[in-house]
Amino acid sequence: MTDNPYDSVPYPTRPRNETHPDRLAAVGTLFGMRPAPVAACRVLEIGCGDGGNVVPVAYGLPESQVTGVDLATDAIASARRMAAELNLENIRLVAGDLRDVGPEYGEFDYIIAHGVYSWVPADARDALLRICAARLPAQGIAFISYNTYPGRHLRQMLREMMRYHTRSTADAARRMERARSFLHTLAEGRLAPPAWRGLLEEETRLLLEKDAGSFWHDDLAPVNDPVYFHEFTAHAAAHGLQYLGEADAHLMFDPRRAAGVEADDPIEREQELDFLRCRRFRQTLLCRSGIVLDRDPDSARMSRFLFAAPARRLAGGEIEGLNGIRIAPGHAELEGIVGALGDSYPLPLPFDDLLPYASGPEALAEILFALARSGFATFHIHDFPCEETVTARPRASALARWQAARSSLVSSACHTPVELEEADLRLLRLLDGSRDQEGLACACGFDPREALTWFARMGLLEG
User: Fold this and answer.
1) What is the arithmetic mean of pLDDT over 49-61?
2) Is pTM beyond 0.90 here?
3) 190, 210, 256, 382: which has the highest count of C-beta atoms within 10 A?
């Protein structure tokens, strides 16, 4: 094994739309901040790995300046190759320790640290928050994900059991093999008390489905320290940072007051909700302590945003959006709005484009605010550019074509991963703008029209 476990067992990365500056800026705007324009901003990703998230950010925001830092030299080398082959000049990729990020790096409007805080030693956690406090400008926003109690207790128990069971095995592959074997024995042995069995079966199933990189680094790594939400926010406050919100903003709202939490203090309220939900993971946004936030946003702000939702009609007539949220049929105005969102999804629609489906701007704002708070729809501040029609000589993004040559996952213009079948991958790789549809049919061996229309809808084509 090398000194760095991330060089020994790679941890593949992918686009995560919850980390995109668009998401951070949207949540900041909702709560009264004035974040930097997404189209021309400064972005730092700490723990960027092989660039699967940060390089697509740089590609999609060519007027922005993007920096990625990771301790794994092999991963950074892969990220640099990707950026070089895409001819990106707006990204810098650094192989180094996050504790060494200093003033020479400059300021960043958005700082991203996904999968770092709970998985590094205490001094590195301190350094991470110190960097956010020092490198964010007045209206800057940081994204930090971490494991949380109480929901993480069961996974931590299994982690401790696996680490004990494999303590005498140094080889990573053999250690993972033994850990997985132990999980099978635990689930199939059914020796635990009946009250525990369902929990253990579900948790072991989730662990056994994980890929090698996630399994090794998330669950067998030497450091994995969950915290309670109030502990994390206290740690952030000690560095001059305050809680802004969650990247999954809908989880901050309880429109039906189903949880029964009445606390006015946002930290107290979020902690109580964690207890009730047995939450195990958070994607928290932070800003400077001196920023005055509006903790009670209303529908009047909705005209600033764009909105997206799949809006799939189910057999019983209900319409399902994101996060499994369903709405009942029978409200013509609401159905018109979500129908328009569904026709456009995953590309977001501006507020003004939805006005024809509503009785007026105030009614539209109320409906969109309800959809966003419930989690049925997402709200955006950035209008992701892409080609929404199939041109005479269609061209896929260079990023998607590069990815299609190496993986079944490609990045959309909206910074989401799209899974493709082999035939679609073959077609996508041909879309360099040099062929018309007849030429594409000859080259790929099938009529490409339906696939091309779908590519345009998914945000994979460029003008």
Assistant:
1) 97
2) yes
3) 382
